[in-house]
Design goal:
about 130 residues; mainly alpha; two-stranded antiparallel ribbon; 2 strands; about 40% helix; globular; transmembrane helix; LLG1-like; membrane; GPI-anchored protein LORELEI; transmembrane
Length: about 130
């Protein structure tokens, strides 16, 4: 059963990311939604494909480190950052971006960070602590 639930290791090294942009702009105790959501998008959108990959542990890993470095309340981004009913809309990166190659570039697809995924994973991370 645990083999069926096994996730592949995230190819993004979230443990070595610079979380200062998040911590500078998204501060408690108020955690202003506009600033926090803008900072979250700036931080997470370059990795939207990896974060939304349900076969990897990228979302869990990213939210774990966000919690460690930012000490954000559970569900902050899922509850406050709503642009559409399915998530945040990330701008499409330039085609020469390191996260996009010719085989996976789809200029017509909307890139979204699933709020449901964010909320569930935040809960799971906090439950494991």
């Amino acid at each position: 059963r645990s083999l069926l639930n096994a996730k592949k290791k995230c190819e993004v090294s979230f443990e070595y990311m610079d979380y200062k942009v998040m911590m500078r702009r998204c501060k408690g105790p108020a955690f202003p939604a506009e600033e926090c959501c803008s900072a979250f998008k700036e931080f997470a959108c370059p990795y939207v494909n990896q974060i939304n990959d349900m076969n990897s542990d990228c979302a869990k890993t990213m939210f774990s480190y966000l919690n460690i470095y930012g000490n954000y309340p559970p569900g902050l981004f899922a509850n406050e950052c709503k642009e559409t009913k399915v998530g945040l809309v990330c701008p499409s990166p330039p085609l020469n971006s390191p996260n996009v190659n010719a085989s996976n570039a789809d200029p017509t697809a909307l890139r979204r960070i699933s709020l449901l995924l964010s909320a569930v994973l935040t809960f799971l991370v906090l439950a494991l602590l």
